[in-house]
Fold this protein.
Amino acid sequence: MINLLENMNEKQREAILLTEGPVLAIAGAGSGKTSVLTRRIAYLIYEKNVHFENILAITFTNKAANEMKQRVYDLIGVSHPRMWISTFHSMCSRILREHIERIGYKKTFQILDDDDVTQLVKSIMKKLNYDTKMFNPKIVKNYVIKIKYDKSVIDSIESPFEEVVKTVSKRYNQQLFENNLLDFEDLIVLTIKLLKEHQDVREYYQEKFKYVLIDEFQDTNNVQYDLVSLLLGKNQNIFIVGDEDQSIYAFRGANIENIRKFKRDYPKHHLVLLEENYRSTNTILKAANQIIKNNRDRISKNLFSSKGAGEQITHFKGVTARDEVEFVATKIQELKRKGYDYNDFAVLYRANSSSRSFEEVFMQKQIPYRIFGNTSFFKRAEIKDFTAYLRLMINLDDAYSFIRAISSPKRGVGGVTLDKLADFAADNSLSLMEAIDRSSEILGKSASTNLKNFKEMILDFRTKLNEISFNSLVDYILSESGYIEALKNDEKGDVRYENLLEFKTILSENEVLYQDLSKEEVLVYLLEDISLKSEESQSEILDGVTLMTLHAAKGLEFRVVFIVTMEMGLFPLNRSMMDRKDFEEERRLMYVGVTRAKELLYLTNASVRQTYGETSHNEDSCFIREINANLIDVKGYSEYVNRSFQNTVIQRKKEVSRTKLDNLNQYQENDLNKGDKITHTKFGDGVVISVVNDNCVIAFAQPHGIKRLLKDHPAISKK
DNA sequence: TGAGCGTACGCCCCG
DNA sequence: CGTACGCTCA
């Protein structure tokens, strides 16, 4: 018999054993949170004889979910691919796949990723003759998503946007519904709708999920919070784990307040504080504490570790960005010789775009690496094209995939034809596919023949699905659609073809996993997986240096961590320096990065860097200065740099970035009112259109158009 | 009507 | 530096 409490400290045991009633575990970085979660699940199953179907565990990423399943399996040998350990989105997708017909959608719904949503909003805006230069489609999209759940948000939208958002949102939601498509927000919102409107479904799940566990609670948003309450019902066996200092998803609606809200909503909860850190040396922990204590809004925690002081933190500053990359590569090779594995290293950056220079040099120096995020496999054009075919086969109503599939490769049907077809379809309440049958009424002979051929082809693919193997189906679609032929004229055709062949692997893997399902159902699951994982990229390289964003690093640990591009403007990002809340989130991101390191931490940057073809000079990231100097060993060209780059350009740049930082500490209050004429340091003269709380909307001359800005931003001055 | 070419623009994080 | 979009020409 295994002992699930082995090696657990007093607090951790408490968190594992308190299975009944609400429990809030505040878990500092590296405090063994995942062990607690997995052991708690194992304990429920193994010791308390709870069936795994009665446990719901929510993680933040699919990767974390898989890892948790694996660890539970390692502990007690119980596992099942359909265990309810998943992200909010996967869980909702699974519930909806089962019951969505109750709220009027079809079971074959497909999920749109974020890029698709932005594109769709943009195209709707164009159709409605809104100027996409004046109104940034991304901002409109964010509003459209936000008001899905909370209609009252519309009242807080400033005047010129309000109108646009209202109109676009109506059209957008209608189009999604007609095409049987869901966006990520729908997954949650529609699950709430389903549970609210259908008592039997609600009671089924409330009865089913007897024990609920939620990880990374600081990153839940309000909609997710409500969903949790709804799933719980009278059941109070809820266990949440969170750490305010690691909340880094506010841009996506995450609300730190949810932890405090939980305390209020579940007054009888037990509070468990996990403060002992098992990961890092005390030098690293001290640095982390020194950084995070600069944030205003936080409950202070006292992280401690029984590990020794360890090595000093290194700050390396190269003359050029190339030096920085070379330093990282050389250091890795050096440590590798001293006995470290490639797996022990992580290079963490703020923006995905920073990865390229590291990839190049690593490749050149033959350092194996695995890269996470970025243009993931599923976001590549050819993959999206092919999935469009598959989606269309499953869901003939999907106009979005229809357009993608019919346009790649080109088959004599262009924008004009499609517009006409869409208008005709709308007028006669038909789907695009249905409208094709009557297309000769509105279109010329060649266009309507091309459309009919396309439809026949898709219908043929549908028949073939049940007649031939997945492997043959991939080949069949690729050749019949003319896709292969088109790739021959494509410079990157070979690579794209290789990528497409990956579908064979993916399809057959899923076929094995879901043996008891029909081929159509397998395809539905596969497409769902692709949608939910479109942001993640898996790599086949097992032994390699990890390259990833700071965001993606949350929850992971490495013996050696390099946090790179530590420069004002890059990290913290320029944009964040306008607002204290954003800035504090950058600081939490730094905190997350630092606390990933177990033994060695390197902070690197450069004094000269090429960005967008232009040379720029940035000051050291302020986060470096927040660490006590006696913890840091300064290496590299920094002294040389200080002496030799005293030219005016650098001086001026430094002044600019210093001003930006100062602005954070110095409050400027602009007394702005509707109609005021102002000047903006970057956008020039403008007129205030509206002011709501801290925000204002100002109309500038083209090319800037209408901007939504912070009222008190120092760049704005009244005329 | 759609393909090809030149210009403008963007500085992110993710399910 | 790359990509996305718009314009022009075939």
About this structure: The CA atoms of residues 102 and 198 of chain A lie 8 Å apart. The longest helix of chain A spans residues 445-465. The mean pLDDT of chain A is 82. Residues 353, 356, 610-613 of chain A lie near DNA strand C (CB under 10 Å from a C1').
